[in-house]
């Protein structure tokens, strides 16, 4: 446990030291759970956005983009259900005065039981060696089976309490499971209360209920209210999708774990409009497409898992999360939801405007069904950073910290390093940059010895470093060093573009 926490601390420290992520308003001691992306963070974030946009919008003929306003008519949030139902159950510990999400406390308790089972499996593995059959062990070992039964029991009770708004039952469950406050260690809990997650503010200079507006808690509604605008102006035929990247705001009860849970964050969402009855097929399609998009980045296959929701959100007919193995364990990275016709129907009712699609093939009008994919940009950022961060001990006993960021996402693609600040080496380095900079983000660095400069580029994840030396001036070749293998080879300057492009082009991810 401690080592995982240490790893997260190391990543946070590294992100700050090299200009990826800073605590917001740091000179005023920061603002809780708010972060600013620094010079390298902004690049990485843009590249992630670009990867998503290309894969979702530009690679799909039938998906288009949108950039809707953050402020929306307040009725939107009434219609969407957020005013009445976008709540989290909160509970306070009377001794530490700390506030928790009741469902998260229970989920964490379940995770602990799961960990115990995993330990049991590890023990079995050690005992039986090659002859060990994990599936058989998990389905026959009495201790494991008893714990699985316990988990199912807890999940069923939690689902019942959450879906039927039985807040007393939720508290009872926390008491019966003897869950203690991680801070005070006490079981002295308040009652469970519902807490609405939307931020509100006032429009213009008049205050009061009539001018109350909300900061959007999801980008999806900007897509729904524009459904007909886009369909008509873009002559879209069902099935089609509308995608958007933008800020969302939630007054999270417990905002922590770095950029994993913030009160201001960014979402990349796509709503796919389909014929009623075809939503099941498209739900499976998008689950499959989205997991492939993640896996194309080349991180460990075991870093991902699907998790079906215990409690469906107020709009959902079916929902699955793609969970990712973050430094604090498996947590939600993306949600894929089958939303039925809930949203468009609600907006029809509240706005009094028809939001229907005329299907020329069926010769009828209907409200389309929607399948949504929704991934947090900041969580993607943390996923990339945490999987890429490596503290390596090299063959010669020295160590290096390297960010093995997938090349297409790396902030800088190339660093160009003149070995010395004389004899025309800096000029040739600049010339090389001039040839590459239109397609690849380049950095020029002439400070310190070359070894230190390589280490600096490793630490920020630059896939290639080019060293310009005396020989380069004569034969127009340079040393090209690759980040992960640290292999160095002599290559002609004229080949640089091709070699770099082959490795860093986003095409590699999109066809993968
Ligand atoms: P969680 O259960 O972790 O609160 P959620 O199920 O409420 O998440 P959704 O409403 O499905 O999340 O939002 C879609 C995506 O937006 C999530 O998968 C996540 O990546 C991102 N997201 C949601 N809330 C936050 C937040 N507070 N900070 C950063 N990203 C978030």
Give the arrangement of secondary structure elements.
Layout: H1 2-17, E1 21-23, E2 35-37, H2 39-58, E3 63-66, H3 75-79, H4 82-85, E4 87-92, E5 99-101, H5 102-128, H6 134-140, H7 142-163, H8 167-176, E6 193-196, E7 200-202, E8 212-214, H9 220-224, H10 227-233, E9 240-249, E10 264-274, H11 279-295, E11 304-308, E12 318-326, E13 329-340, H12 342-351, E14 357-359, E15 364-366, E16 369-376, H13 377-388, E17 389-393, E18 399-403, E19 414-418, H14 425-436, E20 442-444, H15 450-460, E21 464-468, H16 470-475, E22 477-482, E23 488-492, H17 496-504, H18 507-511
Parallel strand pairs: 3-9, 19-20, 19-21
Antiparallel strand pairs: 1-2, 4-5, 4-6, 7-8, 9-10, 10-16, 11-12, 12-13, 13-16, 14-15, 17-18, 21-22, 22-23
Helix pairs in contact: 2-13, 5-7, 5-8, 7-8
The site of adenosine-5'-triphosphate has 16 residues, from strand 10, strand 13, strand 16 and helix 13.
